[in-house]
Amino acid sequence: MPQHDWLEKDFYKTLGVADDVSDKDLTKAYRKLARKYHPDANPNDRTAEERFKEISEAYDVLSDPEQRKEYDEIRRYGASGGFGGGTPYGTGGGGGGFGFDSGNLSDILGDLFGGNRRGTRSGTGPRKGDDLEAELTLSFDEAVKGVTTSVHLTSDAACGTCSGSGAAPGSTPEMCPRCQGRGVLDDDQGFFSLSQPCPQCSGRGRIVTDPCTTCRGSGIERKPRQVKVRIPAGVKDGQRIRLKGRGTPGRNGGPAGDLYVIVRVAHHRVFGRSGANLTIDVPITFAEAALGANVKVPTLDGSTVTLKIPAATPTGKTFRVRGKGVTTNSKTGDLLVTVTIDVPSELTPEQRSAVEALAAATDGSPRDHLSTAG
Q1: Residue 174 three-state SS
Q2: Domain residue ranges in the chain
Q3: Model-wide pTM > 0.85
Q4: Average pLDDT over residues 307-314
Q5: How confident is the model over 215-221, as a mean pLDDT?
Q6: Contact 261/151 with Cβ under 8 angstroms?
Q7: If you write DSSP's letter for every residue of 94-110 in order, what string do you get?
Q8: pLDDT confidence of 154, banded at 50, 70, 90?
Q9: What is the rounded CA–CA span in Å between residue 119 and residue 82?
Q10: SS3 call for 288
Q11: CATH ID of 271-360, from 2.60.260.20, 2.60.130.10, 1.20.120.1200, 3.40.50.2300
């Protein structure tokens, strides 16, 4: 999510927690709201779906320590007038001028020009790795029941030879003598100072004198890898699952990015799905529809249930079998059985005689009510 949108959103309020909430209570609040507004629990409810997205977005930011710290800093800038609408030049007035204090302004301008105010972290310091996406195709049964599997991808990863240090085995990177390990050089501009990346170490704060031959000193190599992923029961086609820290490695000691697994679910030859419910079409004979019958219906777990078809059941009628659907978030859906009357493509002489006898014994027409006469 773009950081410039953070000022407009109160993630703490979205999750109903205080801004000093502990990680444990934050997760507890998220899970409670996620269960309440999950799309599976609110099928075809656009309001609940949007609320679920807001909850997930808020938790994604606040559950990441580094993003939460940045979010809190940005909110403090906004509250102090650092981004406009506050007290002009810290004079204590209530006007609508561009408010700031010298510290905030220096930080903001430092960020814009690639550096930071003297004494703060360098603009080329620890940097989070990139997020990745990968697709995973599951069978219908795996998506319903859940599965632990692996995702195969080729991406940047910590160099296996130097363990990400960039230095050849047996050696270590040295502190940059020019910036003393800060990665930046200060350019004093009077009221504030700007920091520029150190040209000698390219902003890393260290110099590799004996680079690793595998990654050529970058600490990163591109290679195929497998990432183990646990798919929860009830996952839907197109759903994204976040694996924290399984993206590309961070730079300059920063955290790794995240891996988002996009799930693709194969079709089943017998069953379909509607939210937490499973669906199935079951053909019945005309005699069963007219006279009533007990029909055995398969379930996804391999067992069968007996469905009582009442007499005079029309084609297309749907019956509900409780508790035989998809289990998601401790809630289990139902099996929706739609019956359709099977019309034979060919009739034996005995069948034809029976149908003709029925036709002769039938009074009137089911289309009589369509007449426009009179």
Answers
A1: strand
A2: 271-360
A3: no
A4: 96
A5: 83
A6: yes
A7: ---S-B--HHHHHHHHH
A8: confident
A9: 19
A10: helix
A11: 2.60.260.20
